[in-house]
Amino acid sequence: VTAIDLKSRVREVQDFPEPGIGFKDIAPLLLDPEALKQTVGDLAAWTSERTPDLVLGAEARGFWLGAAIAVEVGCGFVPARRPGKLPPETVTARYLLEYGENALEVASNAISQGARVVIHDDVLATGGTVEAIAGLVEQLGGHVVGINFVIELSFLEGRKRLGGYDIFSLIEY
Amino acid sequence: VDPARLRAEIRFVGGHADVWRLFDDATLLRDLAAALVDPFRGRATKVAGIESRGFILGTAAALELGVGFAPIRKAEGLFPGPKVVSTTELDYRGNRHELRLQRAALDDGDHVLLVDDWIETGSQARAAKSLVEACGAELLGLAVVVRQLEPAEAAALGTLHWLIASDELDASERA
Question: So what's the ipTM on this one?
Fold first, then answer.
């Protein structure tokens, strides 16, 4: 079976969400059963080698594949959610975006002391979001044993910002 | 999936159901995905899930069926390209949501299974049905872990498949 060129299943949308930005839409990849299976399989294979106890996905686009990767690996899935959406108790990280601020929460009891956690998100841009999530995992006593993405926008140098972590992406721009 | 298992994992905290324990166990997550899609095997050509909890089981269900996944997004998420849009009725918290589906996600003649963890009033499912139909596709039905809506009220939504009813859950912690 020949592997699918996954980049061909990403739709590049020029000038979205604003002029000069090229948005990478992975919806066509999700809609193609073979590409979806290959994507989850490849991310799960990398994740398995880190022998995690949990995969953590960030709301909302990290939910697309995070749980599917966890099923394939055979470990649990834990979400990082926008504020106010999880039952108490939670830990919260605030981080800066290009415009404004964002925040994510993780349930305090979701990660036990010493748990090995792989973080998943759809796109690595500047790395601010996953850096904040990694901080929450560590605050709860977990170990971030890897961070993976479907897409990496390498010109934004997120990998440099996440220098201390083991990083993997399937598709690079 | 053993209902006792679901009763043990779904807790009520401050009057709200905490469903997240369903997902932190890989075996349960895989069993849920398989149990949700069972009645639809060989019939569904796409799975749709509503942002954001519907994404979690939705993609797992799509992989289980070997079909593609179509995300339905709320108003705030980045979601490029031509879309169909539908607004839900007011829910009992007084909230209304705009739901969006990319037009290219579905083809004429697609048979779509909507997957979610909980159906409460059905308002989001009804909006999702109109999105599916606006793309020329058919909503085959709904697969949920917890059914709160009465089956008679879901008649217009196609086949409703659920793993446990909300009144079978342990409500001892319900506020």
Answer: 0.94
